[in-house]
Design a protein that fits this description.
Blueprint lengths: L2 E9 L4 E9 L5 E3 L1 H7 L3 E10 L6 E14 L2 E9 L7 E3 L1 H6 L3 E3 L4 E3 L11
Parallel strand pairs: 2-7, 3-6
Antiparallel strand pairs: 1-2, 1-5, 3-7, 4-5, 5-6, 8-9
């Protein structure tokens, strides 16, 4: 697991904000604090709760809600689903599903998040 912290611009159907995001290759899904999500867009209930393990051995957290948001990394627009996690220690966590979906590379030596702009060109095939 490796982590990079970066300020991100987030947008939803109701608003936008800046938030500190933790790019965490060890997190399965992207997550957000419920208070931030409520200001940004429409929250949906998950069909069934999802449980996630935490860095604290044996501890778990449960998500019962999700939201779809756009996030901007160095001007590149990405979008994904975020799980709302009560008492989340960080404002936003960008997990492996989002990193893989958008082919985001994490450069730990230079503390950089790299998005290939070619990946963000939207196409209908």
């Amino acid at each position: 697991m490796a982590i990079i912290q970066k300020m991100l611009h987030l947008e939803g159907s109701k608003g936008q904000t800046e938030a500190v995001a933790l790019f965490d290759s060890g997190a399965s899904y992207s997550c957000i604090q419920p208070g931030i999500a409520e200001k940004l867009g429409n929250i949906e209930r998950l069909p069934r709760p999802m449980q996630f393990g935490t860095a604290k051995n044996g501890d778990t957290v449960t998500a019962t809600q999700t939201i779809r948001l756009d996030l901007y990394v160095d001007g590149n627009r990405l979008s994904d689903e975020f799980m709302l996690i009560p008492d989340l220690s960080e404002q936003v966590i960008i997990g492996a599903a989002t990193l893989q979906k958008w082919r985001v590379k994490l450069d730990f030596e230079h503390d950089a998040v790299i998005v290939d702009p070619r990946v963000t060109h939207l196409r209908l095939l």
